[in-house]
Design goal:
This protein is mainly α. It has one domain (about 15-195). Helices cover about 70% and strands about 0% of the residues. The protein has helices at about 15-40, 50-65, 75-100, 110-135, 150-175, 185-195. The longest helix has 30 residues, at about 110-135.
């Protein structure tokens, strides 16, 4: 079996997948726009700071969450894990789609590195979601509100990532590729399928 990305393993409704994925992206972009417009409305200046210092601050605060880490290290790690987990998995999906439709490059060492990185991003997201659940609903950090809708959003996101690892585990158990160690998150579930 060649070392390569297997697209849509045992999935026949590829068109439906892309329709649902497109709807998800549109809903995300609308929500993102609404959130950003609220934030920008609260800024007491006419324009964004696009100077070198402003861009460095944007990177420090937006991509690395430096402000979040001040005073609460666990909250900072939780936010970083959730944010970068999502960013990594989204980038992986874009790369997979590009590989499927445009340029085939997911094979050999490139695929192994890709697979390994997606495992890390998926586990980061799971860790961040678990910390969020514990902080809100077990430790009950006083400054956090514990609405039921927040709980269900965290549970649904957790279920999405977990089922991704489960499907990967089933695929690994059936195909038993020699390079399965690079998909170490899925390997955990493949052992359940072979026992």
């Amino acid at each position: 079996m060649p070392i390569a990305r297997i697209h849509f393993w045992e999935i026949d409704s590829i068109g439906l997948f892309y329709i649902l994925a497109g709807i998800s992206v549109v809903v995300f972009l609308i929500g993102f726009y609404l959130r950003i417009s609220v934030w920008l409305a609260g800024i007491k200046r006419d324009r964004l700071d696009l100077s070198a210092v402003g861009i460095i601050n944007l990177l420090k605060e937006g991509l690395f969450g430096m402000r979040i880490f001040k005073g609460d290290l666990l909250a900072g790690l939780m936010h970083i894990f959730i944010m970068w987990g999502f960013i990594g998995l989204f980038a992986g999906t874009v790369l997979s789609t590009t590989d499927y439709w445009l340029i085939h490059f997911h094979y050999g060492d490139t695929y192994l590195i890709y697979s390994f990185c997606l495992e890390i991003f998926g586990l980061m997201l799971i860790a961040g979601l678990l910390v969020a659940l514990v902080r809100r609903y077990i430790a009950r950090v006083p400054r956090l509100d514990n609405r039921s809708q927040d709980f269900w959003i965290l549970i649904l996101l957790f279920a999405c990532v977990l089922t991704g690892f489960m499907v990967e585990g089933v695929r690994l158990a059936v195909q038993m590729p020699e390079w399965e160690a690079y998909s170490f998150g899925g390997v955990i579930f493949s052992s359940f399928n072979t026992s």
